[in-house]
Each structure stands twice: as C-alpha cells, then as structure tokens.
Write a structure and sequence with these properties.
Blueprint (H helix, E strand, L loop, with lengths): L5 H21 L9 H16 L2 E2 L9 E2 L5 E7 L3 E4 L5 E6 L7 E7 H7 L9 E4 H9 L16
Parallel strand pairs: 3-5
Antiparallel strand pairs: 1-2, 2-3, 4-7, 5-6
Length: about 160
C-alpha cells in the first residue's frame, strides 16, 4: 500500500464531501451523509496504512483486519459524533475525519472497555458510543494495549 497516491485519495474524499454538500443545498431538508460501506472502506484502508494491518476480505463478519501481533481489529471511521458496534471487538480503532480535516485517531485500544460503555442495543442490533466517551476511554488506555502507529494518517 506504499505506492498509493494518498494526495489523490484525499482529493477524492474532499470531492465526495463537496458532492454531499451540493446535494443537500439542492434538496433542503434531506441529508446526503457519507456512511456505510464507503466510509467503512476508507477507514479500513487508511487504518491499514497507519498501523500496518492486514485487511480481511471485505464485509468479513466480526473484524476488519489483523494486527502484526495477531490481534483481531475492528475499524470504524466517522465524520459524526458517535460510532456503532455490533459485537465486542478484540481491539478497536476509531478514526474521525471531519470535513476539511485529516483523519485522527479517537480510540486505539481493547474492545472490552468500549463495549461495556456503549448504550443499549438498538433495534438494528448495534450499540452506539459517542466520540467524547471514546476519547475519554482512550486517555486512560495503557500504552502497551495500543497498536503502534507505523505512519501518520495520509489523508
């Protein structure tokens, strides 16, 4: 993944944001948020680059990648204020990319503390947690439980 043109990737992501803004301007009251597979896949490839992860096949149930030390990793990327998870991951990486900003790591640690702090199970089988709460959990995560950062976020 070293030969990827990350500057172009960043430009393409910015163009997606511009498109959603334009659509929302054309259709007041309608939201055209970037979510689902698109944002998930962006998060996965960027996290793989940043942490040297081996990605699982797309849409693999349970975890998105394997860390060099063998840990199974769930990856979440959001532009919002929270993320939702369906199960307790072994390790969780939560990334955020607000419009016009670079991706930042909100949480990098074991999944158990996050799972314990999530809200009630929703009808869709997911439990959500705010980025604020995730940031608080990240602040108390021991360094040895984090995945080591290999490279800074490219976008």
């Amino acid at each position: 993944m070293m030969d990827i043109d990350w500057k172009r990737v960043g430009t393409l992501i910015d163009q997606l944001y511009e498109s959603t803004d334009a659509l929302e301007g054309m259709f007041p009251g309608r939201k055209f948020t970037l979510d689902g597979h698109l944002v998930g896949s962006v998060g996965e490839v960027v996290a793989s680059f940043m942490f040297g992860l081996e990605l699982s096949r797309a849409s693999t149930m349970g975890h998105d990648a394997k860390a060099p030390d063998g840990r199974q990793v769930e990856i979440k990327l959001t532009q919002g204020k929270s993320v939702a998870i369906r199960h307790e991951p072994e390790h969780l990486l939560v990334l955020s990319r607000p419009k016009g900003a670079k991706i930042s790591v909100i949480y990098n640690g074991p999944g158990a503390p996050v799972w314990s702090a999530t809200g009630k199970m929703q009808k869709n089988g997911q439990r959500s947690i705010s980025l604020t709460k995730l940031s608080d959990l990240d602040a108390i995560c021991p360094e040895e439980e984090r995945l080591p950062l290999v490279r800074e976020a490219p976008v």
